Amino acid sequence: MDALSAALALCLSAAALTPAEEVAIDQVDLVEVNHFYDEHGRRVFDQVIFYDWSPGAGRYQVRAWRLLKSQSQFPIKNWERGDFTAVWHDGEVLREVRAASFRETWTQYDPELVERDYLPKDRRRELMKPVWVR
Q1: pLDDT tens, 13-33?
Q2: pLDDT tens across 70-99, in order?
């Protein structure tokens, strides 16, 4: 009976295990944490903006952006790879974005909105959409 109990316990524990959560991993050239303030110096919102370098335009162009809803989304230095990594749940997706460079800005304008004059939102190469979400 001990062997049967052990086998049953092993089967139940195996069934209770959930598969590892899949992660959508993107690579960008620059990640910016922007703190946007109004004309009275009050913080309106914080956002993370992801940029790719455009050789043709000779400048960084916005690829995507997300509101910074928690400190856990803040990009951190990955000392092993030498890049910056932001990891967060983006709707149904666990997302990881790696960037070669990082900057943090405090502005009274929205850089992502200004960038739409250079590359309209509908022409941006968004972050990947994993096949399991489509």
Answers
A1: 444 444 456 889 999 999 999
A2: 888 999 999 999 999 999 998 888 999 999
76 contacts 83 by C-beta, under 8 angstroms: no
Q: What predicted TM-score, i.e. pTM, was given to this entire model?
A: 0.80
CB under 8 A, 24+ apart: contacts of 62-65: 62/111, 62/112, 62/115, 62/116, 62/119, 62/124, 63/28, 63/124, 63/125, 63/126, 63/127, 64/124, 64/126, 64/127, 65/112
Q: How many CB atoms lie within 10 A of CB 102?
A: 17
Question: Which segments of 17-95 does DSSP mark as H helices, in order?
Answer: none
Burial 19-28 (b: 16+ CB within 10 A, else e): eeeeebebeb
